Fold these 2 entries.
Entry 1:
Amino acid sequence: MTKIVIDPVTRIEGHLKIEAIVNGGIVKEANSSGTLFRGLEIILKNRDPRDASQITQRICGVCPICHATASALALDSAFGIADKITDNGRIIRNLILGANFIQSHILHFYHLAALDFVKSPDVPPFIPRYEGDYRLSELENSELTQHYIKALEIRRKAHEMLAIFGGKMPHNVGIISGGVTEKPTVDKITNFLWRLNELRGFIDNVYIPDVIFVAKKYSDYFQIGKGCGNYLAYGVFDLEGSEKNYLSRKRLLRSGITSTDLTYKTVDSSKITEDVKYSWYDDSQTHKYPLDEETIPKKDKKDGYSWLKSPRYEGNVCEVGPLARILVNYISGDETTKKLVDSVLSEFNAKPEVLFSVLGRHAARAIESKLVADNMSNWVLQLNPDEPVFTDYQMPEEAEGMGLTEGPRGALGHWIKVKNKKIENYQCIVPTTWNASPMDDKEQPGPIEQAIIGTKIKDENNPFEIVRIIRSFDPCLACAVHLVDLRGNIIGKYRTL
């Protein structure tokens, strides 16, 4: 029996530690540990509620836009204007978030995950690296490395596109409670569309073909990293704004729950809770609905092994992310999604069940990038320069609100309680808190832990199977855990490869 410790897992956002017990070459147990304390909820207390859409973006520099969106939705709900946002405000929010989605997915495949499968040149930043199980020819490796470099330029243009309506990236100033700050003009629409068309070309002609090509070379990874088998999506990209309940809205990517049997259920937000039995938080806050819980750190807790909590839906472990969203759209009857998914599956003469895997997650991101980018080309042309982008409101003395949307990495919820026009309580449940969560009160391992358990390890001194599984989830520990030391002390130094 061998204990494998990977600390930190590299080429992800933030600090993640994985411990795996291997017996006979198979992982029998796995622990996923977030190693920095998340304290944004504490920082937000007693502030003006309208500050939340800016402060929560500081959770992460890679995907701040989803936090701005979730926070604005929560404030809209609390202020009684969730169903009163103008069409321009709704569309521009979608365009800002969509630009971030595309760049994040391209970032993940080329700059975080592809180097697990592509052997790049022996020069920085591609070295140092682990060795083993590279299957592409020298020419194929060279071509994909060039695409790695091209993807940097494409991501920059996605940021430029976002800044047209968001002002800047990271931490945009465009999305606020009530709508957005930037009015559309013909020049802005044209500049946005010009960049978007180049991104669409890259997705169609480079990104999706590269994902398919790598998948064919590593087709055994369609059978590796299945995970918990339950998939949760809140939905994202509002196509209308007349419904107060975000989960009931018509969205490009729909809300829903499914599993490996490909049945569909609706989402009830009241069934979301967080367990903390194995998290470094006080046990008095376990198995509570977000707005009923407080963030009370307890760093010396005996059974704790992570700063992540354990979100659960009806007490069940759920994976969130692009795979969950694509599956929900697929089984709920979205024709465009079904056509795209079936087209990719036909490349492998495979059924949808192969999507429950490492390669399934990569394929879902590529499919979703095309789905979002293609729809953005229609949305930007729906903008009306003569119409307003903001809905005025009066901030109440007391209120509660909930904003449910999606980040690139999965289901994202913000909950706010206002008292005396100040934030009394603010809670976030972010995608990686779902995916990288530790065991819960019922001893159920989290999604990443379950995806690792049962994996065959060829070389215990070079467990590349584990990191390929982890990176397929695209973890963002910056979103899931945080630590702030206002005295400016150095908390820790890490050398990452």
Entry 2:
Amino acid sequence: MKTVAFAVVMVLLLLYVWERVDIVRVGYQVERLKSKKVALQRESDELRVKVSALTAPERIAHAAADKLGMMPPGQGQIVLVRVETTLPTNAGPAMPELRLAKNEVGGRMP
């Protein structure tokens, strides 16, 4: 009878120790994931700043002028095109007017 009681006590003790070790292991895993989350949030913020800097209109205009030789359209190069829509009345608002820039050689317009 003593051996059965001793075996039961040992099994309960081992179960308790296993549970505590598992809790500590999960705690370490949670801390690792928290630090990874902070690192990923920092990287996300850095990438947002980089995207914002790269998509700034001033930067794009400067790159278009310097690298591609582009320039804003000159006088008479912007043509207003009206688009007629034949949408049903329940299709929503009509399409807006479009402004197009057209580069004409020699400055003549059709």
